């Protein structure tokens, strides 16, 4: 197995302690507060490293799913049999009970995934609504984020790649009809929607891509309506 850094060992030990003491693993925010890691991205970097090295498993985008592997239980040592037993018991907990416990966790926010949106030529904004949701740490969306204010869309196309938004990524969108100049928005163009930078000009609205090879979309101001902005992009998620 790959060697752990001191900080990775501390993260791993805290996860094991939490499972042993409370019966479930900590949130990203709890790990950050415990170990003095300022951002959840920093915590995620350590967790991804632990996953790559085979010391940890977790389910995508779900709260409370961090699990030490058998290798971890041998390496960490502290309370290994107790942790293993707790883990087995935790996995048998009724699904509805688990969901209720997660819903009570103020650190997490549930985001509905509504469909796909173009980062290229406009496509239909809401292709389907299968009831899919994801749960993420509230810190990733800003302190004032609420579940009913934010929805998720899957990006199709590569016009925003220079902004770090790639084909297949998920964007989290805060519902609002107005946007500051230069922010990334989900905007309606006719009956379709697209993900672009928003630039109001004197005679038109410029929806600017983040890809030098793609031209902007220009909408005359006489044809632009305030309701054409569906929301502002506040977060991006990519499966690795």
Please give the alpha-carbon distance between the first and last residues: 21 Å
- What's the number of domains? 2
The CATH topology annotation of the largest domain reads as: Umud Fragment, subunit A
> At CATH's second level, what is the architecture of the largest domain?
Ribbon
What is the CATH class designation of the largest domain? Mainly Beta
Write the element-wise H/E pattern from the N-terminal end onward. HHHEEHHHEEEEEEEEE
Secondary structural class? alpha+beta
Strand residue content: 25-35%
Q: Segments where pLDDT lies below 50 for 5+ residues?
A: 78-105, 121-129
Q: Helix fraction?
A: 25-40%
Rounded average pLDDT: 75
Number of strands: 11
CATH superfamily of the largest domain: Umud Fragment, subunit A
Q: Which geometry do the CA atoms define?
A: elongated
Rg, rounded, reads 21 Å
EC number: 3.4.21.88
Pfam family, one: Peptidase_S24
Organism: Sandaracinus amylolyticus
GO molecular function, one term: serine-type endopeptidase activity
């Amino acid at each position: 197995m790959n060697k752990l850094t001191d900080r990775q060992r501390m993260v791993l030990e805290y996860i094991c302690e939490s499972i042993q003491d409370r019966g479930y693993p900590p949130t990203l925010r709890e790990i950050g507060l415990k170990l003095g890691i300022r951002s959840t991205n920093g915590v995620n970097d350590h967790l991804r490293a632990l996953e790559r090295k085979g010391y940890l498993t977790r389910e995508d985008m779900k709260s409370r799913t961090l699990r030490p592997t058998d290798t971890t239980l041998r390496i960490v040592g502290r309370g290994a049999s107790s942790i293993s037993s707790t883990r087995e018991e935790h996995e048998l907990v009724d699904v509805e009970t688990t969901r209720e416990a997660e819903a009570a966790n103020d650190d997490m926010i549930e985001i509905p995934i509504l469909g796909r949106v173009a980062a290229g030529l406009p496509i239909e904004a809401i292709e389907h609504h299968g009831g899919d949701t994801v749960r993420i740490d509230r810190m990733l969306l800003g302190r004032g984020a609420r579940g009913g204010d934010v929805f998720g869309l899957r990006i199709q196309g590569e016009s925003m790649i220079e902004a770090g938004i790639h084909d297949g990524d998920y964007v989290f969108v805060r519902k609002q009809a107005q946007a500051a100049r230069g922010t990334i928005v989900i905007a309606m163009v006719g009956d379709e929607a697209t993900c672009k930078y928003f630039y109001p000009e004197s005679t038109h609205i410029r929806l600017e891509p983040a890809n030098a090879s793609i031209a902007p979309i220009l909408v005359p101001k006489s044809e632009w309506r305030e309701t054409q902005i569906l929301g502002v992009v506040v977060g991006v998620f990519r499966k690795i």
